[in-house]
From TrEMBL:
Its EC number is 3.2.1.17. One of its GO terms (molecular function) is lysozyme activity. The lineage of its organism: Eukaryota, Metazoa, Ecdysozoa, Arthropoda, Hexapoda. This is lysozyme. It comes from the Eukaryota. Residues 1-21 form the signal peptide. GO terms for biological process: defense response to bacterium; killing of cells of another organism. Gene3D superfamilies: 1.10.530.10.
Length: 164
């Protein structure tokens, strides 16, 4: 596939975010290398931006991760590890790893159960509402709009940088 036809396909795919992209193109925007997880950097940026309201949040607000969300990702019970939690959510690497871990656990089933929704939108629902059944809940219009605006901006930045 030529770069121009791939670019056109990706643009169409992202412009039609309400419709799930074909797996051939969606694979370009999701990536699971076993270390970072199933979500692309663009999707992760937009989940962070959509949940915090800013493009580069300060301190521990990177993904608005609750103690329960963090503890579940790492199999921790009880509330005795608050220092570790605070350190993790304040670290961009650890906070992203927490989100990616939860996505690895639950996103495949959520995507399977909601195939009409774009994978990043499903990931945001899972991140916002919690595991499995809750990920089928609809995001409100304002949240969906913020996510899609961010994803559109990510595509534009990618096109500007990678297409000559």
């Amino acid at each position: 596939m030529s770069l121009h036809s791939l670019t056109a396909a990706l643009l169409f795919c992202w412009l039609m975010t309400a419709v799930r992209c074909s797996s051939e193109y969606a694979a370009l925007w999701t990536h699971d290398d076993g270390e970072t997880g199933p979500l692309s950097a663009a999707c992760m940026r937009c989940i962070s931006e959509t949940t915090t309201g800013v493009s580069v949040p300060a301190g521990g607000a990177l993904f608005n991760i609750s103690y329960t969300y963090w503890a579940y990702a790492f199999g921790i019970s009880g509330s005795e590890q608050r220092d570790e939690y605070n350190a993790c959510v304040s670290s961009p690497w650890c906070a992203a790893r927490t989100v990616q871990h939860n996505m690895r656990l639950f996103l495949p089933e959520c995507v399977r159960r909601s195939p009409q929704r774009a994978p990043c939108e499903t990931a945001l629902a899972l991140h916002t509402f919690g595991a499995q059944a809750a990920c089928l809940r609809e995001l409100d219009v304002g949240v969906r709009t913020r996510l899609r605006t961010c994803l559109d901006r990510q595509v534009q930045q990618w096109l500007t940088t990678n297409v000559n």
